[in-house]
Design a protein that fits this description.
The protein is α/β, with parallel strands linked by helices. It has 2 domains: 9-261 and 466-489, Aldehyde Dehydrogenase, Chain A, domain 1; 266-444, Aldehyde Dehydrogenase, Chain A, domain 2, CATH 3.40.309. Helix content is 40%, strand content 18%. The chain is built from 14 helices and 21 strands. It has helices spanning 43-60, 65-81, 83-94, 98-121, 164-171, 185-201, 217-225, 238-250, 271-290, 309-324, 333-347, 374-379, 400-409, 425-436; strands at 9-10, 13-14, 22-23, 38-39, 126-132, 135-143, 147-150, 176-179, 209-212, 231-235, 257-260, 266-269, 302-306, 328-329, 353-357, 364-365, 368-373, 391-397, 416-419, 442-444, 483-489. It has a 7-stranded mixed β-sheet with strand order 15-17-18-13-12-19-20, sandwiched between helices. β5 and β6 (135-143) form a beta hairpin. The N and C termini lie far apart (49 Å). The mean pLDDT is 96. The structure holds NADP nicotinamide-adenine-dinucleotide phosphate (NAP). NADP nicotinamide-adenine-dinucleotide phosphate binds at residues 150, 152-155, 159, 179, 181-182, 215, 217, 220-221, 235-237, 239-240, 243-244, 260-262, 297, 335, 386, 388, 414, 459, 473.
């Protein structure tokens, strides 16, 4: 059995905490406590961590990109070396399955290595030099300073302690303080241990990476309010992200909260594609909708098409697949309750008709599919909001004009998918034009789930999908969130190294 410290990682050690609130990880399968007792950081702990981070910030900003790149590679190495323990515990805490979690770990280490290369290529933070008005102007990017990271429950690795936010903040040369997600505190401690060992191996300052526990929201709030903090990276619910953004705005010196939130992502199915391959698309979309019990921010929550016999055939095929999908446990009791409440809300929305509804037991849930005419949906835009879980809504338009009108009225989303054949070309142009104003990523003939990690990726989108629509949490551009421009006029290079 694994042993856990259960305390926060502060100033280079898992320190015993004062009288913080105590909690346990809960098995999503049995509802019982898993090994390990975790204790919230006290306000003194947070202050100690922030002092260490502040000190580390002064040192890290002088490190070369090569040195930072080595740290990110060493973190990836440490995670790989402890893959079995990480995957085992993450599975106990999330029940997402060993295969999915092994893939998520590979994605996490791949992302660390991509950002390591990006940091190395930025050995010089100098953006440009101009000789103007008899002066020499140098424009630099400098790290903003300590960054707080809040991860989400549905990605215990890739969007949590060792995930993209931590990796991109470190790549920028910023110290990181993670608030561990209470749904996977054991995985968080194991990942924090790996990052800590990498920092020790390369003799990075003790405040480079720290992690605090906080089942009580007061802990996260104290972190966000701390005067040494310079930015927050958040992945999670709209409620959580906006609550932290309010706090950050109320500070005497407001700071940005880069919040990646959820969305009901639109999938548009055009007529020729529906006519030629509705069965194949039903297979693909059923799989995407139920993947990880639908617990993906990129879940295909809305499926838009023109009504008619081909749409009816697609609906029948999709219902058949969803009816055959096994029921499964969700990440937490809170997420299960919210999913069932979301379904209840949708079923009582004017104009919504249920196509398929799985029975829910005390612990298990199944997929749900509903439909609504586009005209009714335009009157009831609440159908366009995310229900986190395997829930889909078919939106049926009378014609192409109405289909485009629906897309134009959607709230901001992370991703829009278009299924189209060659013969749909003219309509596809209209749809892509409309989608480009509503989403951060457009994919053609692929499902929205599965965000490729690469320099050309953008994982973000207009509000309410995120709080900063120009920023991404995936890919190398994620680093720029944690850099600040600084212009130097006639400052000798030796005076600002
Ligand atoms: P969550 O409940 O918002 O949790 C995220 C973190 O924020 C947790 O540590 C949570 O602690 C904390 N938190 C939440 N509300 C807070 C508050 N008012 N004050 C202080 N801290 C607070 O999100 P989740 O359930 O883990 O994740 C599911 C959501 O994340 C879905 O909507 C999904 O679409 C979205 N998501 C988005 C992305 C993306 O990249 N855009 C990726 C994955 C997931 P507590 O648990 O103690 O509340």
């Amino acid at each position: 059995m694994m042993d856990f410290h259960g305390t926060s990682l502060i100033g280079g050690a898992f320190v015993p905490s004062g009288a913080g609130r105590v909690y346990h990880a809960i098995s999503p399968v049995t509802g019982e406590s898993l090994p390990g007792t975790f204790v919230d950081a006290s306000s003194e702990d947070i202050d100690t961590a922030m002092q260490a981070a502040h000190q580390a910030a002064g040192e890290l900003r002088r490190y070369t990109g090569a040195r930072i790149g080595d740290l990110l590679d060493t973190i990836a190495e440490e995670l790989d070396a402890h893959a079995e323990a990480l995957v085992t515990r993450a599975n106990e805490e999330s029940h997402l399955g060993a295969a999915r979690l092994e893939g998520e770990l590979a994605r996490t280490t791949g992302q660390l290595r991509l950002l390591a290369d990006a940091a190395r290529n930025e050995t010089e933070r100098l953006r440009r030099t101009d000789h103007v008005g008899g002066s020499t102007l140098r424009l630099l990017d400098v790290p903003v300073g300590p960054v707080a990271v809040f991860g989400s429950s549905n990605f215990p690795l890739a969007f949590s302690v060792p995930g993209g936010d931590t990796a991109s903040a470190l790549a920028a040369g910023c110290p990181v303080i993670v608030k561990a997600h209470p749904a996977h505190p054991g995985t968080s401690e194991l990942a924090a241990g790996a990052i800590h060992r990498a920092c020790e191996r390369l003799a990075f300052p003790a405040g480079t990476f720290q992690m605090i526990h906080g089942v009580d929201h007061a802990t996260g709030a104290a972190l966000v309010r701390h005067p040494h903090l310079r930015a927050v990276a958040f992945t999670g619910s709209h409620r959580g992200g906006t609550a932290l953004a309010r706090l950050a705005n109320e500070r005497p010196h407001p700071i940005p909260v880069y919040a990646e939130l959820g969305a009901a992502n639109p999938v548009v199915l055009l007529s020729h594609a529906l006519a030629s391959r509705s069965e194949v698309m039903a297979d693909t979309l059923a799989e995407s909708l139920t993947l990880g019990v639908g617990q993906f921010c990129t879940n295909p929550g809305l499926m838009l098409m023109r009504q008619g016999p081909h749409a009816e055939a697609f609906e029948r095929a999709l219902v058949q697949r969803l009816a055959a999908a096994p029921e499964a446990v969700m990440l937490t009791e809170g997420i299960r309750t919210a999913y069932l409440a979301g379904i209840e809300r949708l079923t009582h929305t004017a104009g919504v008709v249920s196509c398929h509804q799985a029975d829910a037991s005390d612990t298990l849930v199944g997929p749900s599919l509903m439909k609504i005419r586009a005209a009714d949906a335009l009157d009831e835009p609440s159908v366009f909001t995310e229900v986190f879980g395997p829930a889909g809504v078919l939106v049926l338009a009378d014609d192409e004009v109405e289909l485009v009108e629906v897309i134009q009225s959607l709230p901001g989303a992370l991703v829009g998918s278009l299924f189209a054949d060659e013969a749909d070309g003219r309509e596809a142009v209209e749809v892509i034009q409309a989608l480009s104003d509503r989403v951060g990523r457009i994919v053609v003939n692929h499902v929205p789930t599965g965000v490729l990690v690469s320099a050309a990726q953008h994982h973000g989108g207009p509000y309410p999908a995120t709080l900063h629509d120009r920023e991404t949490s995936v890919g190398t551009r994620a680093i720029t969130r944690f850099l600040r421009p600084l212009a130097l006029q006639d400052v000798p290079e030796a005076w600002f190294a």
